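Dear colleague,

Following up on Tuesday's group meeting, I ran the structure prediction for the two-component complex that the binding team flagged. I've pasted the input sequences exactly as they went in, so you can double-check that nothing got truncated or mislabelled along the way. The structure tokens for the whole assembly follow below. Feel free to forward this to whoever is handling the docking comparison.

Inputs:
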Amino acid sequence: MSTLIAAAEAPEPRSSSGFRLAMLLPGALVTFLLILFALGLVLFLAFRGNDGSLLGVGLTVENFVTVATDPLYWTVTLRSLVIASLVTLATVVTAYPVSYYLAFHAGRRRGLLLFLVTLPFWTSYLLRVFAWKIVLAYNGVLNSALIESGVWSEPTLAFLNTPAAVVVTLAHAYAPFAILPIYVALDTIPKSLLEAASDLGARPFTAFRRVVLPNSMPGVLAAALVVFVPTVGDYVTPAMVGGPASTMIGSLIQSQFGKANDWPFGAALSVCVMLVILVVVLVARGADRRFGSRT
Amino acid sequence: MKAERADTKRDGRWLGLYVLAYLVFLYLPVLLIPLFSFNNSIQAAFPLQGFTLQWYQTLYGNPALSGALANSLVIAAVAASGATLCGITVSYMDLYGRSPLAPTISAIARLPILIPGVIVGISLLILVNLIGLGPSRVAIVLGHILVALPTTVVVMRSRFAAIPKTVREAALDLGASDWTTFRRVMLPLSLPAVLSAFMLAFLISFDEFIVVFFLAGTEPTLPLYIWSQLRFPRSLPTVMALGTVILAVSFIIAGTAEILRHRGLGAARRNPA
């Protein structure tokens, strides 16, 4: 017995260095070169002046001064934050009941339903945005359907090229992202916890509010993060269904690397977006810890 | 007790209806594309005009389209191979590597989830220009490896973690080297997950647009081709025919990946040792 325990606790023999090197190399190359070095380049470029060369010239904070003082950038950044927050809120709130059903009511249909709600994620993002364009357009599906059914007599321009169109389209495009993390969090709540709540006299809604909801918060936060991050930098949806009143920060970054050809300034805008995301991640982490301490 | 059970049942029914409505919201806009791809009108609007296959015929013998398709297939195959290789090694070393570097690499490998696509795109654009490569197919492959990496790492990590520890320990105790253990025991046991990770990475690369927009040189991928066609109202029905084909193929690949993943997990549960 004691020898068995000793054998189980004995340190594993160190693996051969050739094996370790070969197994670590691909990941190390990709993570250090492609991720850390490339992001470092963006940070470096953000502090350079634009002289048309690849890495710019000099060392300056001018780019950040422009971002901080020009009201245009404040407006666009604020709009991106508002649109991304609305998308996140809409996506998480509408996804939660679906995840709840999957975790507590779906039974044997769970696997199939889980597959069905995540399937749209694997179809082209571009096509999903395009689908909303044909729904919302002046000659589009919504207008023609409303006229056909007699609700409307004239098509309306009010659907397409609005911030609301951007929010609906993005909420649709990122919906599957929200369902999975919330479902995983709900699924790990022990059923005995719910039984205990009802044994102690909690009504179903109280049990939900005091037991289920707080315990699922880590999943809600994870969902909010995976929806917020890609939407705050999106430039395709605003370009296709948003119109000029919905320009987002991603569109500005994209144009700095295209038409405007001011890469250092585009890099500075990117650094600002990453800072915003960092703050959001830290807030989410803090909230996560608060909820984590409850269980 | 009885009343409670009735309560949850009623809740379940209402929630079930909600889930149904949600699925309609999820699928209705997407299914409009196949619907209008058979419509005999350039306008995507009701009422439907008549059934036609002419938009599908225009897909044939279009050199720009077949070029973009070939590009996308090659890029997706190479990028998915790279991302899967990284996913396998990164997660294996993270779980069993006993190297202080491994958890760090694994954490950074999952980082691209927290970077908006536009920033992944421009950071790689700066990098490939710096090393003299410039926008090119290689640049796109690098970009897509990054975008697919978090997915392959997560898929492989959960699969490796599901293999009982004793399996690997037994192999090592019986004198198998690390290489042999990895190649003859751990990799075959996780093969369904490897295939699933590869397919998911393939789909991610095949559909990816936001990053590729910055990294494409003279040879566009399929999403870039679609993007260029969206500007011309006349080509929209053709785009919808193309979109229908892409939707069908994506659904089939995603379905296969899902079945493989389940088979892998099921096998692990049935046959833990």
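Residues 62-236 of chain B form a domain with the MetI-like fold fold (CATH 1.10.3720.10).

Cheers,
M.
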